[in-house]
Fold:
Amino acid sequence: MEKVILGIDPGTNVMGFGLIQVEGKTLSVLEIGAIELQKIGDPYLKLQKIYKTLTELVEKYAPDEMALEAPFYGKNVQSMLKLGRAQGVAMSVGVAHDMVIHEYAPRKIKLSITGTGAAAKEQVAAILSKMLRYENNQKYLDATDALAVAVCHYYEISKPAIPEPSKTKKVISTKKSSQSWAQFIALHSDRVVKK
Structure:
């Protein structure tokens, strides 16, 4: 499998992005960064900057798929509305360039990278830096969050397909579960970070 995945961490003050190249089971970072929007007062100019910046990235790297962190629901409706607009602009860039788009919940992303859905952003960034062998000198954790979204998507599309159960035959589950770290590592040796 060879492809480029664009990960997006939507935001109205800072929008993170991370692009990874997938070659077989090898992942490499193409570019990681953040679109800074704090100094732009007009909300529509923020959306314009998101659109232009993401369009430039898509035209430069021609990603096959886009993965976004789905917004979590908070109590502030206005914040959710603004975040939804930013996410919608990112999606429209993907749709305009015929990309397949996927969304992942924040807990699922953290779980796929660290093994726990309650991991701190700093923990996710540190693991990604070691795993992908890149120097993490990002000013914003939104950038590494976006990279985590792209890696989470890679893990999702790399899973073997599970055949649908037959109506006449009894299907025995082949899903492996891990009871200890040793078992988890044995089952997921491709996720082990080597020093």
Observations:
- Confidence is low (pLDDT under 50) at residues 168-174.
- The chain is about 45% helix and 20% strand.
- Residues 77-96 form the longest helix (20 residues).
